Amino acid sequence: MSIVVNPASRPDQWMAAMAAELPEEDLFLWPQVGASGSVEYVLAWEMTIEDLTDFPNLKAVFSLGAGVDQWMGLAEHPELGSVDVVRLVDPAMSDQMAAYALHWVLHYQRGFDQVAGLKQQRQFKPPSQTDGSDYTVGILGHGNIGRRVSQAFIDLGYPINAWTRSGGRGHPDPSVTHFIGSEQLDDFLAASRAVVNVLPNTDETLGLLDRKRLAAFAPGSVFINMGRGTVVKETDLLNALDDGPLRAAVLDVTDPEPPPSASALFEHPKVVLTGHCAGMTVVSTASRVIADNIRRLRRGEAAFPLLDPERGY
Ligand code: GLV
Q: Whose CA is nearest to atom 2 of ligand 1?
């Protein structure tokens, strides 16, 4: 039985890393597949249903990114049989996202957005900034990634608000202030100076930050989106920057993505665009996480975590 590896980038690195982890497995680099009836597992960022249905004995797809919205359609194709989608939860990726969030929150909280202007005026003086211990950072979504982001700020003394749709899994974290469900979302937004979104794209998060929600942000607050662009409509966001409470928006993700070249996001002075780089899959660590799961499956154990089509991630 064999494994097809179909990464969006760095194919040679992926093949070398998987071969080192799983020397006993037959690995094929897409579009080579060997005997299609032998293919049991596919590792890919995304792949069409037509291509997957060529593998009659396919058991599982391993996502090569943290997001899984590209795999949601699988559940609607009974001709595929029962194929699990194994999500990629790699602490190295969460570390990168925590670093990204720290960078941008500090940029605004410490007033680094003003230093270029001061230099232009030939002034050598510190920018105006707020005290970190008074600067509450709100994390929208508190799963593996959200908790890692929280911890990075907690370690530096920032108060944390965490919003989850249904209270999250596991025990509440006593070091953060929890807000749960749509009834508490406005309070969460109003009590946060920077809001960092790490929510996935699901039916529930689509357009979650509508005009009314955007109006609930604290005056002068910053929105940092490294979840999915679908959480907010571009026009609503621009409106909240021009006539609403937002001081700035840092967008690693957009909807559509990439934005069309005529998009107003490109010229808006309060918008920073970073081109979907907040959490890049790290081949050396992700290959280990995936190989551990394949070894589990080979021992007859379950791989985890699996995409739950009902929940949407
Ligand atoms: C990036 O957004 C990913 O899903 O890995």
A: 67
Measure 254 CA to ligand 1 centroid, in angstroms: 13
Catalytic residues: 228, 276
Q: Which residue ranges have their beta carbon within 6 Å of ligand 1?
A: 65-67, 279, 281
Taking the CA of residue 88 as reference, the ligand 1 atom at the shortest distance is 5
> 66-75, 111-120, 274-283: lowest mean pLDDT where?
66-75
Whether residues 86 and 96 fall in one domain: no
| Angle in degrees, CA 291, 21, 84, rounded to 5 | 20
Two structure tokens written together for 26? 């037959």
Q: Is residue 312 part of a domain?
A: no
pTM for this prediction: 0.94
CA of 9 relative to ligand 1 center, distance in Å: 13
Give the position of tokens 């154990």.
301
Position 88 pLDDT exceeds 70? yes
Residue 167: pLDDT band (50, 70, 90) is confident
* Cα–Cα dist 40/61, whole Å: 9
Instruction: Give the count of domains, the chain.
Output: 2
